């Protein structure tokens, strides 16, 4: 199995500006249900940390699926205005999973 056959994990913290915390919570929360229905999405979780940061954890079947997700208009609009919502750049990570993930069997061509 090559790295391109393995699921992609994207995770990290976002620290909203205090005056925009509720708005960021609403926007991020609005992404959960639609994203979980997207082709190739294996997991999508949003957490709120006690210090006010939001933690996102996503797993995608492939880079292509993640790229398609990142091109959705609501997400593009949020990302294009990220500096107006956040106090600092996101503390994010993007990795190829090396542990088995049964739901991520390669799609037959």
Q: Report how far the terminal alpha carbons are from each other.
A: 15 Å
CATH architecture annotation: 2-Layer Sandwich
The level of helicity is 25-40%
CATH topology: Alpha-Beta Plaits
Mean pLDDT: 89
- Count of DSSP E strands? 4
Characterization of this structure:
It contains four helices and four strands; from the N terminus they run E-H-E-E-H-H-H-E. The protein is α+β, with helices and mostly antiparallel strands. It has a four-stranded antiparallel sheet. Strand 2 (about 40-50) and strand 3 (about 55-60) form a beta hairpin. The model has no long low-confidence stretch (mean pLDDT about 90). Keywords: Monooxygenase, Oxidoreductase.
Short description:
The chain is an alpha+beta fold.
SSE topology:
Layout: E1 8-14, H1 21-36, E2 41-48, E3 54-60, H2 63-70, H3 73-80, H4 82-85, E4 91-96
Antiparallel strand pairs: 1-3, 1-4, 2-3
Main attributes of the structure:
109 residues; alpha+beta; Alpha-Beta Plaits; 4-stranded antiparallel sheet; globular
């Amino acid at each position: 199995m090559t790295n391109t056959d393995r699921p992609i994990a994207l995770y990290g913290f976002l620290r909203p500006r205090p005056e925009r915390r509720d708005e960021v919570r609403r926007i991020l929360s609005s992404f959960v249900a639609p994203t979980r229905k997207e082709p190739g999405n294996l997991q999508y979780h949003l957490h709120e940390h006690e210090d006010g940061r939001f933690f996102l954890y996503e797993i995608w079947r492939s880079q292509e699926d993640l790229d398609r997700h990142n091109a959705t208009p609501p997400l593009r609009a949020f990302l294009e205005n990220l500096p107006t919502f956040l106090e600092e750049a996101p503390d994010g990570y993007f990795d190829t999973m090396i542990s088995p993930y049964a739901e991520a069997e390669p799609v037959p061509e």
